[in-house]
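re the bet — no i am not wrong, look at it urself. input seq straight from the record:
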Amino acid sequence: MRAFPKSRTTPYPIYLLLGLFFVSSMIPAPIFAENYKKVPTIRENTYKLLSISQREFKNRDTNKALSILDKLNKTVTLNSYEKAMMWNQYASIYYSLDNIEKTISSYENLLAQDNYPKALKAKTYYNIAQLYFINKQYPQVINKLQHWFTLTNSPSAEAYALQAQAYYYLENHQQVVDSINKAIDIVDKKSIDPKEQWMVLLQSSLDKLGLEKHRLSILKWMVRIFPTKDYMLSLASAYATLNKQKEQLAVMELAYKKGHLNDERLLLALTTLFYAQGVPYKAAKVMQKGLKDKTITTNSRNLKLLSNCLRAAQEYEKALSPLQQSAQLSDDAETYYQLATTYYQLARWDEAAKAFTQALDKHLPSREQRAWVLLGQTYLQKHQFEDAINSFTRASTFSDTQEMANRWVRYTELERDRYEILKDSAELEQSIQIK
């Protein structure tokens, strides 16, 4: 597993799911001296009271177990080891009663003792770190874990992950990355995959640090192992941030095939991606299925988008129906203009002339000059020469189409004259044949 950078950049928010680590089981019996020199011994009377308290605790008589400890606590001659074991037993009982505050207080009293076994001290630091985490006291979590790290030669990946979560809540995202990397290194050496929760935490902090390229590699790993909707969409978003639209489309299409894109916003996003990447036919298929399944709303805007996709795929006949519906729903000049140009491309001159006229009647400021030119060409195809000349003349009043429109006026006049000559010749020939 690759390591991740230590540089800082601008944070960027993302949704995160965090679980909690559970407090490990408390130490049930006295721990004898190890790695400490001259650790005091537990005297017989103290050991007897601790054993009785523990027995009552196992019998679920916590009140009696606590009363025995209270009696022991009043003994002024207790040495540090005996006090440590007494406070450890207090902590076990209070934890069983879900009294986190008193459990923490008991452990703090234990840690305040001078001389007791290193194993007990290490265990206590780890236990109290987890309790502080449950209590949302994140600076204390970090402090206790740092002490614990100094007491162990083989820190666990879970401890670094717990440290990372505390740093996350303190918004120290570079430390989150560093801690999770250490956890990953530990499990990687054992050929074990990192836990999903760690990777969620890591990619979130990388995102907040603005390290999208590094976050991308984590998300790719997560999608391979856990191909869920959330991870796929996060990966697609990461590709989009890096302007990798082809890769973004590939992930979105995979999510679509797996049934993860089941709301209008995501389906329209996929349609737009297909269209922008030059795959309009697939874009149209997504729209058609969404409209049929009613996961995409049947409104003017969406019908127009479907028509655009079909037109881009050169499916002009199929593009007509949704565009007609869109025009009826919106009564919009731009939609009628688009409908007219579709009719024009299909050489359906009567419908084209009607739609161009409707568009112009509804005021078409951005395309008016072009609409007059196309209307003139449509009339020309219908041999309605006077209407064509009038349309081209209107187009000539706009500066950017003036020269072209004047040429069309002259051409139409010539076509009109030629058509009249041909018409007269045909009529004369027909008259001669009849005679």
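see?? The chain has a mean pLDDT of 88. told u. also The first helix runs from residue 44 to 58. so pay up
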